[in-house]
Design brief:
The chain has 145 residues and is of the alpha+beta class. 37% of the residues lie in helices and 31% in strands.
């Protein structure tokens, strides 16, 4: 399974929201006890910037997305959302290793934040990310080339 990527457009907004909702809802509910669709959607809409999002496709099907801001000093990873039917097949690893290769080529770190209850933390740790800080709900993690 090797993914292809395409730039997101404003036309992808509904699919991106549905994907984020599907992927994150269980962890938000575990962390805060509830998922308020209106509040979560408002947050999504206020931060929606398709220039920071790449759609991940596998076999011609949209499988998830990568959202990151590429700066001169670091890459800030906001989200890697893989729809459940594509999870646990190595896709997240491939996507993250690609981001690490990109960061290594310019000598900058990758930074992210993950909910403490999200099992993706184990993947990040396997790929060399380390916890640099934490809040009651999140771990801040960093990978240095």
């Amino acid at each position: 399974m090797y993914p292809t990527f395409r730039a997101a457009t404003a036309g992808d907004r509904a699919w991106l929201w549905a994907t984020k909702r599907r992927c994150l809802r269980p962890y938000v509910e575990q962390t805060w006890g509830t998922w308020d669709d209106a509040v979560q959607r408002a947050g999504f809409d206020s931060k929606f910037d398709p220039t920071e999002i790449q759609i991940i496709a596998v076999g011609g099907r949209d499988a998830g997305y990568l959202s990151a801001r590429r700066g001169e000093q670091e890459i800030e990873l906001f989200n890697v959302m893989i729809n459940p039917e594509f999870q646990n097949q190595g896709l997240g690893t491939i996507v993250l290793r690609g981001l690490q290769t990109e960061a290594r080529s310019v000598g900058i770190p990758v930074r992210l934040r993950v909910l403490k209850v999200n099992p993706a933390r184990r993947l990040y740790e396997r790929l060399g990310f380390t916890v640099t800080d934490e809040t009651p709900t999140h771990f801040q993690m960093r990978w240095q080339p």
